[in-house]
Amino acid sequence: MATKRESDYDDEDDNDDNVYINEETELGHGNVLVQRAPEERIVPPLNFCPVERHLYRSGQPSPVNFAFLLDLNLKTIIWLANEEPQDTLLEFCDKHEIQLQFATINPDGGEDDNPWDGLTEHSIINALQTIVRADNYPLLVCCGMGRHRTGTVIGCLRRIMGWNLASVSEEYRRFTGSRGGRILVELLIEAFDTHLVEIESDKAPQWLLTALQ
What range(s) does the Tyrosine-protein phosphatase domain occupy (predicted)? Predict the structure, then answer.
């Protein structure tokens, strides 16, 4: 029985008349025809999610995510780790003039090997002081996987916004995967002194001012 050569498949991929059918068509919800696949994939980073207007969270972006990040017009990326991010992310930020803030590099008191992967009260406040200023936006908060360290900072932000602890914990656990959240992270969020973060009303983003009313 004759089989197709690899070149035959290549010819099919190059055919502009191919019809790509999306999931809705397969499920019988309509006929959506696309004459050709998009030339560039727009892929968000791992655990990407909007937090508030022009504020986002995710795991460490990789080159496949850069086209997506460009659409966000980011001005600032907060990197929550004691180790440097990948060189490709450093180069991306440098090329597009994005400020990369190392929120936990060399915290006061030296290297910290605590249960929260290097997050100290100082580094959390450092990140939050950047988040509460509108002139740093659009802004992305990220760490290796976008789970515990990012979840800690966002959880403390929610405390500032007046969220109850049940809602804060639910949001944190939503990103922690099958292993679930860390009780030490939730205890840190609960114990965080929100008064340590200085908020200037003339410089804060509007969504934060609305939450504080």
Answer: 47-205
Dist. CA 78–CA 208, nearest whole Å: 18
CA distance linking residue 55 with residue 49, whole number of Å: 9
Which residues, in sequence order, are bridge partners of residue 140? Answer: 56, 77
Query: Measuring CA to CA, how many Å separate 108 from each of 77, 127, 157, 193, 194?
Result: 21, 14, 21, 18, 19
pTM score of the predicted model: 0.77
**How many CA atoms does the CB half-sphere of 8 hold within 13 Å?**
4
For each of the domains in the chain, give its residue range(s) and CATH number, in order of start: 9-39 (no CATH), 49-212 (3.90.190.10)
Active-site choice (49, 93, 142, 143): 143
Q: Identify the weakest region by mean pLDDT among 32-41, 70-79, 83-92, 171-180.
A: 32-41
Q: Say whether 143 is catalytic.
A: yes
- pLDDT tens profile 82-121: 888 999 999 999 999 999 999 865 444 444 444 445 688 8
**Whether the Cβ atoms of residue 135 and residue 205 lie closer than 8 Å to each other:** no
In whole angstroms, give the CA distance from residue 144 to residue 61.
Answer: 9
